[in-house]
Specification:
single chain, alpha+beta, Deoxyuridine 5'-Triphosphate Nucleotidohydrolase, Chain A, 4-stranded antiparallel beta sheet, 3 helices, disordered N terminus
Length: 208
């Protein structure tokens, strides 16, 4: 009986070790930035929180030309000509109207190593205004590099002004139990590697 209990305890410890991931503290984030394991171009020191970093809103937005789109065929994808890229001049806001959807982008350019992933969360202050910062894409794979595209929606009944440079989301970082065997920058089907603007969906590549 004692041998069985010992075996079960060892098995339990191994299972916990397999699934455990560690969230980086501010101390660990700063160390990773100094060592260039994590690269965040444009990050301000004051935007490093206790266990996350705040990212800010860029000045480029992409919206659909609704009058020219009858539907979207996920097999054929969507042409950039059916969207409009809007660049907001300095000192002007982007106004999100009720039920409007737009792709935005972070000012900061990030680069992750093969053993660290990140999670993206919208800010509570914006959520209380009805602004959803990311519709589905809440994680950033190990090996990702680029500006992060934000899938933004206004679910409120009133328009909201969004100012380029404002804090828009935060990233928390988690260390993997080991390095990814095939990180995002090594995958042949990585669709959004190196993006610098709000990238349209490339879902058709999933069906090719």
């Amino acid at each position: 009986m004692l041998h069985w209990l010992l075996f079960l305890n060892i098995l339990r410890a191994k299972c916990l070790n397999v699934i455990s991931m560690t969230v980086l503290s501010d101390r660990d984030i700063k160390k990773a930035l100094r060592e260039k394991r994590i690269v965040i171009k444009g990050l301000k020191k004051e935007n490093i929180g206790p266990a996350s970093v705040d990212l800010t809103l860029g000045n480029c937005f992409r919206v659909f030309r609704h009058s020219e789109v009858t539907h979207i065929d996920t097999k054929n994808g969507i042409s950039e000509s059916l969207t409009e890229l809007i660049k907001i001049p300095k000192g002007r806001p982007f106004i999100m109207h009720p039920n409007e959807f737009a792709l935005a982008v972070t000012r900061e350019y990030i680069k992750l190593p093969a053993d660290i992933m990140a999670r993206l969360d919208g800010r509570s202050s914006l959520g209380r205004l009805g602004i959803i910062v990311h519709s589905t894409a809440g994680s950033v794979d190990p090996g990702f590099e680029g500006n992060i595209t934000l899938e933004m929606t206004n679910i409120a009944r009133v328009p909201v002004e969004l100012w380029p440079g404002m804090k828009i989301c935060r990233l928390t970082f988690e260390t993997l139990t080991s390095q990814s065997e095939v990180p995002y920058n090594k995958r042949k089907d990585s669709k959004y590697l190196g993006n610098k603007g709000p990238a349209i969906s490339k879902i058709e590549k999933d069906l090719s």
